[in-house]
């Protein structure tokens, strides 16, 4: 069967393409821009990709899968509709072709979905279960964002964003998980949700789909999720939290930066995790992953041992390299809470390593929610751990950063080139630079390392 995917360069849709190819479908796709890592993965999978100008219907696909980035008025959408071509959404295709026969582990939440889903997939794989997965990032333990895997387990990052132009429900309502992780819940995606209550409504739709013989794993005393569960649930619950939280699962830090922590279940120690991750947020992600894997049948001690071998996720505090004594990291953080937890973890790690250099944050407000000004008041506090902030803001966005509200020096540039020049001239040995964006950021990460390497020291 021929399948053509519109919006194939996105991580989710590119993952759908790889899964379809693994199942024996004849897969092709269209997009307007494609770059690594997805371009690399699609090329390695042997999937033909073209731009939207291509007459994709000439391939005579039986099914066109339309990504949620495409709306009415887009030429490819109009071409599909006018031809009365059969079409579907990515989540619906996934549900009907793969998930209906699997034990689905779904990881939902405003933050940490990619990392936690990657952890679950790795623990199951380390236990010899060879799970399938579809994740919105690239787990370093696997090197790809999606694989078909073996039955019964399939791990999916359960996004609350809408499904498609013709289906405005959240993606995750299609997945029908047996094991469901609710990481956290904050207001986000202001381009499609009016308020937090609108997101909570979608989360409760997800809760309604989890069977009575399943499991819902959630943080202890997180008000927004507590409110969702208070609307009703029909599934056993397990909670996770820090020491003293009275949660079913809790942790005790053995190192302040979170690089070593002890895991407890119902008051009993299950062992210590020693890994390369840092930050309390990742420790909590790890607890959720252990709880989910245990529900799938993996003994807790094996979960703890496997997590110690977890290699992380690309673009989640990925150490890109060092030049002239300056370390550069790449991170996906774009919501104030994610920015704060990322920088908190970076600062804790620097302190644990005895490093006295500056922590430099470089970011662009790329998300629709950020540009709408929803997080304007909370953004300055998110950078409280930074010694200096450098931001790129395109004048066309008509968006202004309230620099006076920051506790540190803030530099704003209107082009990638001038931002790069400023960084190269002002960074100094001992600095740790964290580049934060949910986009490509003009490739500034690697360009910065190259430019620093060529810098002539005074």
From TrEMBL:
Its EC number is 6.3.2.45. Residues 315-439 form the Mur ligase C-terminal domain. It catalyses: UDP-N-acetyl-alpha-D-muramate + L-alanyl-gamma-D-glutamyl-meso-2,6-diaminopimelate + ATP = UDP-N-acetyl-alpha-D-muramoyl-L-alanyl-gamma-D-glutamyl-meso-2,6-diaminopimelate + ADP + phosphate + H(+). One of its GO terms (molecular function) is ATP binding. Residues 2-98 form the Mur ligase N-terminal catalytic domain. Residues 107-293 form the Mur ligase central domain. GO terms for biological process: cell division; cell wall organization; peptidoglycan biosynthetic process; peptidoglycan turnover; regulation of cell shape. It comes from the Bacteria. Keywords: ATP-binding, Cell cycle, Cell division, Cell shape, Cell wall biogenesis/degradation, Ligase, Magnesium, Nucleotide-binding, Peptidoglycan synthesis. Its cofactor is Mg(2+). Pfam families: Mur_ligase, Mur_ligase_C, Mur_ligase_M. Pathway: Cell wall biogenesis; peptidoglycan recycling. ATP binds at residues 109-115. Reutilizes the intact tripeptide L-alanyl-gamma-D-glutamyl-meso-diaminopimelate by linking it to UDP-N-acetylmuramate. Belongs to the MurCDEF family. Mpl subfamily. This is UDP-N-acetylmuramate--L-alanyl-gamma-D-glutamyl-meso-2,6-diaminoheptandioate ligase. The gene is mpl.
């Amino acid at each position: 069967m021929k399948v053509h995917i519109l919006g194939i360069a996105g991580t989710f849709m590119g993952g759908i393409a790889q899964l379809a190819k693994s199942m024996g479908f004849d897969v092709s796709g269209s997009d307007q821009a494609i770059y690594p890592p997805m371009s690399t993965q699609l090329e390695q999978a042997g999937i033909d990709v073209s731009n939207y100008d291509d007459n994709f219907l000439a391939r005579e696909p039986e099914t066109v899968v339309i990504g949620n980035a495409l709306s009415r008025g887009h030429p490819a959408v109009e071409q599909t509709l006018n031809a009365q071509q059969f079409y579907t959404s990515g989540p619906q295709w996934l549900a009907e072709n793969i998930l209906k026969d699997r034990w689905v582990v779904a990881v939902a939440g405003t933050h940490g979905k990619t990392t936690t889903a990657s952890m679950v997939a790795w623990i199951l794989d380390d236990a010899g279960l060879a799970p399938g997965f579809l994740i919105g990032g690239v787990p370093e333990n696997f090197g790809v964002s999606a694989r078909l895997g073996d039955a019964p387990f399939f791990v999916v990052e359960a996004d609350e964003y809408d499904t498609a132009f013709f289906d405005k429900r959240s993606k995750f309502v299609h997945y029908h998980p047996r094991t469901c992780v609710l990481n956290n819940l904050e207001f986000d995606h202001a381009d499609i949700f009016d308020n937090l209550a609108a997101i909570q409504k979608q989360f409760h739709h997800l809760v309604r789909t989890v069977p009575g013989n399943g499991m819902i794993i959630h943080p202890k005393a997180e008000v927004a999720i507590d409110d969702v569960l208070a609307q009703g649930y029909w599934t056993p619950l397990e909670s996770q939290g820090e020491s003293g939280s009275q949660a079913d699962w809790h942790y005790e830090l053995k190192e302040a930066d979170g690089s070593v922590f002890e895991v407890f279940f119902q008051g009993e120690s299950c062992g210590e995790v020693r890994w390369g991750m840092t930050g309390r947020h990742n420790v909590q992600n790890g607890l959720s992953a252990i709880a989910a894997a245990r529900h799938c049948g993996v003994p807790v001690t094996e979960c703890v041992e496997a997590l110690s071998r977890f290699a992380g996720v690309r673009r989640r505090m990925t150490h890109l390299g060092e030049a002239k004594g300056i370390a550069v990291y790449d991170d996906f953080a774009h919501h104030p809470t994610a920015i704060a937890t990322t920088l908190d973890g970076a600062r804790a790690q620097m302190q644990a390593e005895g490093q006295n250099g500056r922590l430099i944050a470089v970011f662009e407000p790329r998300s629709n929610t950020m540009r709408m000004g929803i997080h304007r008041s909370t953004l300055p506090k998110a950078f409280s751990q930074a010694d200096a902030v450098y931001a790129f803001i395109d004048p066309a966005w008509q968006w202004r950063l309230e620099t006076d509200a920051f506790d540190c020096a803030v530099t704003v540039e209107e082009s990638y080139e001038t931002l790069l020049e400023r960084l190269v001239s002002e960074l100094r040995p001992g600095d740790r630079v964290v580049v934060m964006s949910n986009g490509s950021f003009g490739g500034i990460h690697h360009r910065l390392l190259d430019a620093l390497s060529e810098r002539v020291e005074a």
